[in-house]
Design brief:
Elements (H helix, E strand, L loop, with lengths): L1 H25 L2 H21 L11 H30 L2 H7 L6 H27 L8 H28 L5 H14 L12 H8 L2 H13 L9 H4 L1 H25 L4
Helix pairs in contact: 1-5, 2-3, 2-5, 3-5, 3-6, 3-7, 3-9, 5-6, 6-9, 6-11, 9-11
């Protein structure tokens, strides 16, 4: 019976994900503008500021920047998840789903599937763009595949934070509040510069940022300059990129489930 319920929840989740994907096909501008913004950041830092940035341990700045931007894109996806969940809840769509004889996990699962597919597509486009401007992974297919998995693993964890925020905060200022949360986390990291070039306390904060862990791990797995020569992150980047999303998921998946159950009570 439990296996049957899980199978039904998976099928229902795919159906709900299909609804979200159809919505993006009909109104693709959110995805397009999001990608354009990330490409603009890459070009700006790579060609406008890149010549002034030195990396500890040496190496090409574009090769350092691109894996960091891939990780930052996974973080920026938090806003789209939160906004979509908040809109569905505010317009009563989530309540309609709750009134149907479907698993309570199906709605969140559908959002997770759709957003992961969207993030995988965005990541593929950014990687192709990186190749066009000179970024090159220098390791084998297994290492590159693991790097992509770690990027999507971070996105999966942040999905539950986005679902929770979207269900809990649906006011007009909710999106702005998420932007205030996301931007400091994204920039106080090793996405654009090495933590070793920052003041001591700030470098420590940046080094322990979950985005930094994923950025460092993907740089290592892609064979790109890591910008780290000492410290825990330099020696345990893949471990950190594996554990941080696990911690985030363990915290926010139950919170998101609880927020969904409490809707309209």
């Amino acid at each position: 019976m439990d296996a049957d319920r899980r199978s039904n929840a998976a099928r229902e989740g795919w159906l709900i994900a299909g609804r979200d994907i159809l919505h993006w096909v009909r109104e693709p501008w959110g995805l397009v503008f999001g990608l354009a913004f990330n490409i603009m950041l890459i070009l700006m830092f790579a060609f406008l500021f890149g010549g002034a940035i030195d990396l500890p341990g040496g190496g090409d700045y574009i090769s350092f920047l691109l894996p960091g931007m891939f990780a930052l894109t996974m973080l920026f996806g938090l806003e789209s998840t939160m906004t979509a969940m908040a809109e569905d809840a505010k317009r009563g769509i989530t309540d309609r789903f709750r009134s149907l004889p479907i698993s309570s996990a199906s709605v969140a699962l559908g959002r997770a599937i759709a957003d992961l597919l969207s993030s995988a597509l965005s990541l593929a486009v950014l990687m192709l763009g990186g190749l066009l401007i000179g970024w090159r992974p220098t390791t084998g297919p297994a290492e590159i595949a693991l790097g992509v998995v770690l990027l999507l693993w971070l996105r999966f964890a942040l999905l539950w934070l986005g679902v929770y925020l979207g269900l809990r905060f649906r006011g007009a200022g909710a999106t702005t509040a998420v932007q205030v949360l996301v931007w400091p986390i994204g920039f106080v990291s090793t996405v654009f510069v090495s933590a070793e070039t920052m003041p001591g306390w700030l470098g420590t904060v940046a080094a322990w940022n979950p985005v930094s862990a994923t950025a460092a791990a993907t740089r290592e797995l892609f064979g790109n300059p890591t910008g780290t020569t000492t410290g825990w992150l330099a020696e345990n980047a893949v471990l950190g990129a594996s554990l941080w999303p696990l911690v985030i998921t363990a915290i926010f998946l139950p919170l998101a489930a609880g927020a969904y159950r409490r809707l309209r009570r």
